[in-house]
Amino acid sequence: MQEEKAKPKLSFWQIWNMSFGFLGIQFGFALQGGFMSRIFQTLGAEKDTIPMLWIAAPLTGLLVQPIVGYISDRTWHPKFGRRRPFFLFGAILSTIALFFAPYSSALWMAAGSLWILDASINISMEPFRALVADKLPDSQRSFGFVVQTLIIGIGTWVASNLPWFMTQIGIPNTAEPGVVPDSVKFAFAIGALVLFSSILYTILTTDEYPPEDMDLFQKEKEESKGFFNGVKEIFKNIAGMPEVMLKLGVVQFFSWFAFFTMWSFATPAITEHVFKATDTSSLAYNNAADSVGNYLGTYGLVSMIFALILAFVTSKVKINRKLVHMLSLFAGGSGFILIYFISEPWMLHLCFALVGIAWASILSMPYAMLSSSVNPKQMGVYMGIFNMFIVIPQIVAAVGGINFTYKFLFGEEVIFTMVLAGTSLILAGLANLLITNKQVTHDG
């Protein structure tokens, strides 16, 4: 890896400000992850068709993130910097898509809204990852990504509980068949407002370091101009990705297969298996679906607490990133599998608490390890390429990987999707044993 110029250490609040936009990004992801399947079911989707309705989102991410990362590496504006223009553009599009998603009147409209929403969030998300690596020395990167995870945990917890909270203050939680309840519409509107305002906060409170050699930067930018040059360079970077990145890709594959399974099937699996509710227009189903959002909020809350613990630890001592990640994934896998065996609904909080430990680690440790293994000048494009290992498992899951695997391994009941998610996380934990480079597994 190319040596980079020494960077000053930043304070907690400087790191907080540069990561605060992730609060809004996670509002968007939590609302789509917790409630888009509910919207699909309300509009008449069968359970087995739900993953395919999600497929446009990861397909778009596969294309968008490397391109955005590549372009942002070659962007510099004296006032707006390198990554912040992409924050703003993505925020505007995401806000619009998030607001209108629950007003869909047909499945194709809902799937289209999800596609636009996910693509727009992706435009903002990876530059946020790259910004941490841009601004922090290696010794602070675990801490920086953990602070991001803390903010993500807050966003997950609050956003996942919004429909439930709307119901508690008297907003209707049921509607005519085929119509999304007002509680969900209000939740998405609040999410849209938080998304835009939090990203704007980061844009206004954070500056960026200019290129170390502006003349060389401009020369390299000119040499890489043009669509085909850009595509060629991205493929060159893919072919030349560090060995550590490939090994992390195996870990990421099983991790994100598990969470895509949760986002697609948690609502139908838990409402049916735990609450025995299947009529999507009934009060029983909609109350159960609100409860699922509440349980999903638990994994956000626990990921926030676990991130706080990690933030304290990583600010004081060096950690073994690989070991922390492996044990965290084992915890999350156990939580998913235990959902099948619970006897009381409240026990779901315990299951998703274990999932929250895995989520906190997934959002921090792989990025900390990756950022220590790549050329700092290519941080944006490699963060974007790394997203391939997030979206490819989601595409595999969407085109039949979930439906075939859980039925083949476990049985026809939809609750077995959660057992599949748990098994996948445990495999992800074991895959950490492939990573042996101490430069990336330990804090610098």
From TrEMBL:
User: Where's the Major facilitator superfamily (MFS) profile domain?
Assistant: 244-444
What is the top-level taxon of the source organism?
Bacteria
| Tagged with keyword ATP-binding | no
Q: Which residues cross the membrane?
A: 12-31, 51-72, 84-101, 145-166, 186-204, 244-266, 292-311, 323-341, 347-369, 381-402, 414-435
Q: How does it sit in the membrane?
A: Multi-pass membrane protein
Q: Where in the cell is it found?
A: Membrane
Coiled coil region boundaries: none
Stored Pfam families:
MFS_1
Which keywords does this chain's UniProt record carry?
A: Membrane, Transmembrane, Transmembrane helix, Transport
InterPro entries hit by this protein: MFS, MFS_dom, MFS_trans_sf
Question: Principal place where this protein is found?
Answer: membrane
Name of the protein this chain belongs to: MFS transporter
What organism does this protein naturally occur in?
Fontibacter flavus
